[in-house]
């Protein structure tokens, strides 16, 4: 997961832990890849450059690669441990950060950016989108996914006085909410907030879809899939935007 140069050492160490989940799951990775393939359209004479920023162990980019043939997919992460694992899946995996010195790419160098399950971990998401906008060419595509604070079950949990799923108050343990994994979420978005935030950063929102969450208990999964018809209620938000 891509972080920022200002993070405290203990938070950096948290993300260096191989036990911390770094992939969003194969179905979601495939869905994002299909959205990007449709956005890119027919193959161009020259291969396009796609950056997977916050690539983690590289499995998401490797899953997407067969749906994006002929393009250069470059994994980017600040974690040396993650990059070591990513290089077993990807031809290109480069160290880079979204703040400080920024990403090691020129202005307008990328045709598309995959930004999956990263923004919720950032101290400074404004600087992150500024840097992503810099490296994207005009009209370049941003494929962003993040958990939905206003997911259908979170609305019910809040009414019951329970901490929403995806939100966290500690890096050491779960307190006051369902679930077992601590994943280090710092920011959470509703569909409306995500649209406004991305638009204010200089992007045009093309499409916003909902996706299910693999952690939903099995008996509730049909309802979770049904909620995807309304992104504002879905577990996961999948956003396609273009640099203006």
TrEMBL record:
A Pfam family this chain is assigned to: Methyltransf_23
GO molecular function: methyltransferase activity
GO biological process, alphabetically ordered: antibiotic biosynthetic process; methylation
InterPro entries recorded: SAM-dependent_MTases_sf
SUPFAM superfamilies in UniProt: S-adenosyl-L-methionine-dependent methyltransferases
This protein's record includes keyword Methyltransferase: yes
Keyword field contains Phosphoprotein: no
Keyword terms: Methyltransferase, Transferase
PANTHER family: TRANS-ACONITATE 2-METHYLTRANSFERASE-RELATED
Protein's name according to its UniProt entry: SAM-dependent methyltransferase
